[in-house]
């Protein structure tokens, strides 16, 4: 099963990293200049949700999505097209990502950068901050409640925003207790990889006001974007659809215009 496999893999990475990271790294991470504001960048503009555009070269369900990606050029075109933030997959084994991409992309764009990986331990948070992350993802399905809360707090102490991801109603209480800066509703079931936009439609109304909410995964067309937009989410995270576009910039423009190319209906 994917989540078991990934946890096993990440535990190995964590143990290697624990050997390498020193107190100096930790001190350095605490002294870096402030992060770019991820949560604050996510609000609806002209009736459309903010777009978080993802650099995702491959995935466990689809295999290679795009051969020979230039992650930096892709991220820059996302920004030029109007993305509010960039999400960078840093997992190598399943997503063909790289931690270096995060650092390179952070240097190349001016919008906030989210590190997309499977975080189980605080060493990964220190590593994220040192490599340029403005925000990190924490997945409720992978973490004990107390661990989730502790990691969320630690990430914030390091100056990063925390995106907490849920897929079902039973995960909402734990997510809220961990004080998310942004709450993500993943339309993809991480056990079966099936996506269903109904997940966002069902869970969004249950989330208290005041927390920015994003819908994640499964947007494969402008129609899908419009459907999620109607739910009222503040942002939408899109990966595969944009990675498959001939021009990532045009892909982004198409979505943020919402299909109308115009502003508020009234
Ligand atoms: O490529 P998509 O279907 O647009 O999905 C993007 C993003 O939501 C997805 O990559 C994602 C959401 N949550 C995750 C957790 C880990 C890895 C990846 C993800």
TrEMBL record:
Task: Report a single Gene Ontology molecular function.
Answer: indole-3-glycerol-phosphate synthase activity
- Superkingdom per UniProt: Bacteria
Tell me which EC number(s) this protein carries.
Answer: 4.1.1.48
Name the InterPro entries on file. Aldolase_TIM, Indole-3-glycerol_P_synth, Indole-3-glycerol_P_synth_dom, Indole-3-GlycerolPSynthase_CS, RibuloseP-bd_barrel
**Keywords of the record:** Amino-acid biosynthesis, Aromatic amino acid biosynthesis, Decarboxylase, Lyase, Tryptophan biosynthesis
Catalytic reaction equation(s): 1-(2-carboxyphenylamino)-1-deoxy-D-ribulose 5-phosphate + H(+) = (1S,2R)-1-C-(indol-3-yl)glycerol 3-phosphate + CO2 + H2O
GO terms (BP aspect):
L-tryptophan biosynthetic process
Q: Report the enzyme's class at the first EC level.
A: lyase
Which pathway, metabolic or otherwise, does it act in?
Answer: Amino-acid biosynthesis; L-tryptophan biosynthesis; L-tryptophan from chorismate: step 4/5
UniProt domain Indole-3-glycerol phosphate synthase: residue ranges: 3-255
- Give the family per the record: Belongs to the TrpC family.
Protein name according to UniProt? Indole-3-glycerol phosphate synthase
Please state the gene responsible for encoding this protein: trpC
């Amino acid at each position: 099963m994917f989540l078991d496999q990934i946890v096993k893999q990440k535990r190995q990475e964590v143990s290697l990293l624990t050997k390498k990271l020193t107190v100096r790294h930790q001190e350095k991470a605490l002294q870096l200049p402030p992060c770019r504001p991820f949560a604050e960048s996510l609000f609806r503009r002209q009736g459309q949700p903010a777009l978080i555009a993802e650099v995702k070269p491959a995935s466990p369900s689809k295999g290679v999505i795009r051969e020979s990606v230039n992650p930096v050029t892709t991220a820059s075109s996302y920004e030029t097209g109007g993305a509010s933030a960039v999400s960078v997959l840093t997992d190598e084994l399943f997503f063909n990502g790289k931690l270096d991409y995060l650092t390179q992309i952070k240097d190349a764009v001016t919008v906030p950068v989210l590190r997309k990986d499977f975080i189980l331990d605080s060493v990964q948070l220190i590593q994220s901050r040192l490599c340029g992350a403005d925000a990190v993802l924490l997945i409720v399905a992978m973490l004990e409640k107390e661990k989730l809360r502790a990691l969320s707090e630690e990430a914030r102490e390091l100056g990063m925003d925390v995106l907490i991801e849920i897929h079902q109603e039973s995960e909402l209480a734990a997510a809220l207790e961990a004080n998310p800066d942004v709450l993500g509703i993943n339309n993809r079931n991480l056990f079966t990889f099936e996506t269903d936009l109904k997940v966002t439609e069902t869970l969004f109304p249950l989330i208290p006001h005041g927390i920015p909410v994003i819908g994640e995964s499964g947007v494969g067309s402008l129609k899908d974007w419009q459907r999620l937009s109607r739910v009222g989410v503040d942002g939408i995270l899109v990966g595969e659809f944009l990675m498959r576009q001939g021009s990532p910039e045009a892909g982004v423009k198409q979505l943020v215009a919402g299909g109308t190319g115009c502003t508020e209906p009234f």
